[in-house]
Amino acid sequence: MTSHTKLKFETELTKLFVARTHELTSTLWPKVGKAPYLTRKKILLSVDRLQSLAEQNFMKSNEAKDIFDDRDYKKQWHKSGKGYGLSAKQNSFKLWYDAHIKTKNNVYIFWNGSRCLYVGRTLNGKNRPTSQFEKYWFGKCTRVDVYGFHGKRKVPCFECMATHKWRPQFSKITPASKKYYRVCPVCEGKEFIENEVKSLFRLKY
Ligand SMILES: [Zn+2]
């Protein structure tokens, strides 16, 4: 963790600690001003901030880079200048996909310029990216990145990591549900932070 991020993380924890021990210290040394009471809402907001600091930090790590490098190939489709209208675009993508993507386990990312629209996955060839053609945002799509995998195990983690990294406008995080799949370290880290903070600063009532 960079020292700047670490400092922010520790400051956030200190704020919670000060609020949590306010009652105790103020009986010994009465304080002036508003008491920093701890509430469920404050704890949850802190958990949020701590999680996003940890997430940003992890994304810069070698471990994150290794996950993004750990796929069998990457291919890119660009909206071609030829053909007009939505159906021409759909056809162009479909032809390209069938010609270039030979794996059944893939993560695909739809882009509008530098803006990420959607992150999805196919496992065993189910939910191919063409199933997104009906979505109203497909018209905005200018590029699709496809990451191919020979096996299934790493796919949900890769998809989840891509969602953390590029924050797609139209899709949500879908962590791996089965034990067989590689676990997303960001989701795992977030859960750990939430459990730790809630147990450290448990409310009395
Ligand atoms: Zn995740």
Instruction: Give the CA-CA distance, first to last residue.
Output: 34 Å
Trace the largest sheet across and list its strands: 1-4-2-3
Radius of gyration: 22 Å
Look at the helices and sheets and give the structural class: alpha+beta
- As for the number of domains, it is 2
Q: Care to count the β-strands?
A: 4
What is the CATH architecture annotation of the largest domain?
3-Layer(aba) Sandwich
Helix content: 40-55%
* Biggest sheet overview: 4 strands, antiparallel
The CATH class of the largest domain is Alpha Beta
Kindly identify the CATH topology of the largest domain: GIY-YIG endonuclease
Residue share in β-strands: 5-15%
Q: What's the order of the H and E elements?
A: HHHHEHEEEHH
Which key features would you list for this structure?
GIY-YIG endonuclease; 4 strands; alpha+beta; 7 helices; binds zinc ion; 205 residues; elongated
Structure notes:
The longest helix is centred in the N-terminal third of the chain and has 20 residues. This protein has two domains: 75 residues, no CATH class; 103 residues, 3-Layer(aba) Sandwich (GIY-YIG endonuclease). The chain is built from seven helices and four strands, in the order ααααβαβββαα. The mean pLDDT is 90. With 205 residues, it is α+β, with helices and mostly antiparallel strands. 47% of the residues lie in helices and 14% in strands. The structure holds zinc ion.
